[in-house]
Amino acid sequence: MSTRRIWRGTAPLLLAILAMTGNALAQSTKVIDVNEPRPLWQALDTLEAVVGSTINYEDPPFENMADCQDVSTPQQRAAQPAGWRLIVPRDGHVTAEVRVPAAGTVPGNDVIFDVGLLLASYRRSNLPGDFKVEQANGAVYVTPTKVLGADGAIRDVTSPLVVQITIPNAQRTVVETTEAILEAVHKATGLRIVMGAFPYWPIETVGFGASGEPARDALARLFAQTAAGPLSYRLVFEPRPDLMRDTDYVLNVRRTAYVAPIAPLGAAPTAMSAPLPKGVPGNSPFRKKVPE
Amino acid sequence: MLRFCCLTILAAVCAHSLNAQVGCAYYDQGCNDPVPLVDITDTPFVNDWVDTEGCTWSLTSTDGTVSGNVTCTMPSGCPSVTFIVTGDIYAFPQIDGTRGSTSFAWTGSNPQPPATCGGITPVSSTYSGTIQNISNSLIITAAWKNVTGESGWVNVMKSPADFPASETTTAVGFGGSGVYVSVGQFRQILNAVSGSTDIFKGRQVSEQTGWLSPYYDNCYYSGSAYPKWTTVDGSGWNVGYYPVDPPYIVNLNVWADDYIGYPYTYVTGYRNHYASGSPLCGARIPQVMYIGYSTGWSEYMDFYAADTVGEDIYRSSVTAYRAGVSQTNNK
Fold first, then answer.
1. pTM for the whole structure
2. Are the beta carbons of B158 and B48 closer than 8 angstroms?
């Protein structure tokens, strides 16, 4: 018999954070340490789980091969046509020590401070592009400001999601509504954004429209209407030197600080048993005492 | 899940609770189950209801009518007494957002042997109350009243609890259009030891990521714009949510559906980045299934099955997998 209790609610997340921090009760800080392409993306995922606040992230539009690398392996290249490559942003190291809240979420200013630590590390590692940090719609936004242009000169860039969009009011699935927002951005900017990961329930619908509203504000409003709870996004750019790219951006939406539950080891099928509760003393339903 | 399935279509495929009441996709937030139970005992000879008055109820229910017998212990030196049971259960109408429940009234009469023994005379009595769903395997509190006018409360527990002997998976197509066209739809039946086709109606199942091999996503490459598929989403499902509509639900122990696969944007993206191989790439994620219990005071889950979900991407098709069952869509 191996019956176990697996509590729902915040337990999985708490366990995950405990695992990440080693011993959250004994420590008040956590070291975030990432070494890979787009290290800010992964670092902010971790920070979001630690602080419990919504943090949105957008890639710079990588367009110079100096900001990119080929991550294909010799085995992969041998199996693919000549000239085949896997082009991704140049990897690098981002690290910072952030405070772990004893309970609940961290105040917005503290989150911005922690994001600033990660961004400072990103800059020290001389990684591609540069970013700014803003607060809006009850969330933190980390968006690009500069990138190395194809001509070798640094140029200013802005988020494609600050463009104002209009979409008609209608009842649609959440996915269809998101796609309508992205299509409106495409019409306004020429940039193609496709849905990547998303946590939406497939038949969940919302009544939604936008009129002259920044796309990111429309997204925030949509996120607030879904049943999935707080959501954040990662707008990921397919590097222009990647000749196999089929879109400009991929929009990955995630549930803020959600950690999918992991089954405990050693699970085995079992029947369940539980102790009988104590009965109510007094009369008995099927037995009548005979008066003496 | 659509995250890779199993819900985050996230990153890749997911196991998703599509055809279930809104809320179960986000099981960690809680999921109200509106489905009432329609059967009380996994018969024949699988379990009984045992109460705190020393009586054991061996019951069957058919279309709301309850029959069987109840045997009670008597004072030391006296034989046990068996009563004939008649009664009914009534499943209240299923309403989204309202927890499903079923009323019951069971009467034990015609005691055998009827004689007084040890100063105690066996008398007929009726138990009545309401069984909340999910707790159809556990403890209920009943009001009792006997023919002499005495009354009180008694706790009754099913023993042993209902537990799926196995789970059968059926491939039922792909998830419609758009990004879902590459997401396979799988429907499950919880198999009872007795062969009952309704004993699990009103229960809840949920998923977690397991540990066993195979466990990989070889479509993902470091720096990919699409997140790696590493987990199922932790979705939940209400068993027997569809009693009639859609009509293809013929077994009330069905939970529907588990959505498994990469969203189509992933598929096109990976096809563009892998020129050869058959499949071009794919993923396998271990999935562990739990069934929920409720005592009326607390809820918990117990493991009942482990399997693997995943998908392979080919040049012009995708094949989705769950528990050894596969289906292909030429998209």
1. 0.87
2. yes
Which residue of chain A is at minimal alpha-carbon distance from B124?
A286
- Spatial CA neighbour of B33 closest among A261, A222, A273, A8: A8
Averaged pLDDT in 10-residue chunks for chain B of 331 residues = 38 41 71 89 80 92 93 93 97 90 95 95 95 72 93 87 92 88 94 91 93 94 95 92 65 90 96 90 97 74 93 97 97 92
| Residues paired with residue B3 on neighbouring β-strands, in sequence order | B9, B10
Alpha-carbon separation of residue B101 from B92, B132, B153, B159, B200 (angstroms): 6, 4, 19, 20, 14
Query: Residue A57 corresponds to which amino acid?
Result: Y
- The pLDDT of residue A282 is 53
Which residues lie below 8 Å from residue B200, measured CB to CB, with a gap of 6+? B162, B164, B190, B192, B239, B240, B252, B253, B291
Q: How many CA atoms lie within 13 A of A64 on its CB side?
A: 15
Contact yes or no for B28 and A283 at CB 8 A: no
**Which residue in B29, B136, B307, B309 has the most chain A C-beta atoms within 10 A of its own C-beta, making it the best mutation to test that interface?**
B29
The whole-angstrom separation of Cα A175 and Cα B216 is: 27
Query: Which residues of A are less than 8 Å from B17 in CB distance?
Result: 201
Look up residue A203 and give its two tokens.
């038949």
Distance from CA of A127 to the nearest CA of B (A): 14
Antiparallel, parallel or unpaired: β A55-58 and A231-237: parallel
State the average pLDDT over residues A44-71.
Answer: 96
Cβ within 8 Å, pair A179-B22: no
**DSSP, residue by residue, A76-97:** HHHHS-TT---EEEPEEEEEEE
Check residue B92 and give its pLDDT. Answer: 95
Contact A88 B221 (CB under 8 A): yes
The predicted complex's ipTM stands at: 0.85
Amino acid letter, residue A284:
S
Statement: residue A161 has pLDDT above 70: yes
Q: Check residue B138 and give its pLDDT.
A: 64
Does residue B62 or residue A156 have the better pLDDT?
A156
B13 interfaces chain A, CB cutoff of 8 Å:
no
Query: Out of B3, B120, B154, whose CB is closest to A289?
Result: B120
Contact state of A286 with B138 under an 8 Å Cβ cutoff: no
* Best mutation target, B109, B224, B264, to test chain A (most A CBs within 10 A): B224
Q: Which of B105, B72, B112, B67 is nearest to B86 (CA)?
A: B67
